[in-house]
Amino acid sequence: xxxxxxxxxxxxxxxxxxxxxxxxxxxxxxxxxxxxxxxxxxxxxxxxxxxxxxxxxxxxxxxxxxxxxxxxxxxxxxxxxxxxxxxxxxxxxxxxxxxxxxxxxxxxxxxxxxxxxxxxxxxxxxxxxxxxxxxxxxxxxxxxxxxxxxxxxxxxxxxxxxxxxxxxxxxxxxxxxxxxxxxxxxxxxxxxxxxxxxxxxxxxxxxxxxxxxxxxxxxxxxxxxxxxxxxxxxxxxxxxxxxxxxxxxxxxxxxxxxxxxxxxxxxxxxxxxxxxxxxxxxxxxxxxxxxxxxxxxxxxxxxxxxxxxxxxxxxxxxxxxxxxxxxxxxxxxxxxxxxxxxxxxxxxxxxx
Length: 352
Prior knowledge:
mainly alpha, Growth Hormone, Chain: A, globular, disordered N terminus
């Protein structure tokens, strides 16, 4: 199990390297095709699962799956941002990203249930059906901006995929959202991975209620905060959200009861749950015109790397120190991210 976890952790950052290319293609080709290619990659990976017998093949399939997932998530977010009115992008993207939370909340218990009533092949069949449904739905996608996209494609039959060209299409300040996202993902997913072990070590019963409270908090807060970010701006929402996540880390570091664990869940639900879609909108706001796909792909890469590093960092710190030291370290990292964002926001306001 440890070896599998290590391989999955290694696959994530390597797969993230490819995402800027898929993002560039999103901006210069039909984004529907990129979404379909991503879904097809996942379908191939699922079909290969029953035949995997050695770890090397598992790492290769996981690498292939992660590339597909990144392409699909970047493509769908870029498409949503293209469709939404500029003044309602925060609200719209918040609703859209909520579907991800519903999926991550529903699919693990469904997968376990399918294993209990059948076997792994039943899980494979169910996964194939879901991906196929996604592909059919994608084929039916259409919006008025497809014509403009086709015009750009005709003008760029031979797109320059060189690193220099990719770098020039991104503003320097556009790296602030993926940097903040990376720090937040490392902190959130790193702590989330070890909550069961923390609870066992500190004799906290019924710790699984953390995930229920967190999920419910995200569903309620995200819909409200999306509208607020459209009205008051991204940074005024992000700064208190990051502060809440930092506070959640401090509470978690000193949690020895179910109540303190549930308080952490609420803080995470409001903080991380609201910050994620707001960061996506913030990145889109800072990007050049017609680079939404590349911007979303860079955010996906940051997310993927963060999930891989989170467990690794917390695991190493806990091994040599304690859970308390690990979570306090993450709290201070979040405060650093908040300071970076606050300084940038202050400079932006003073220049107006």
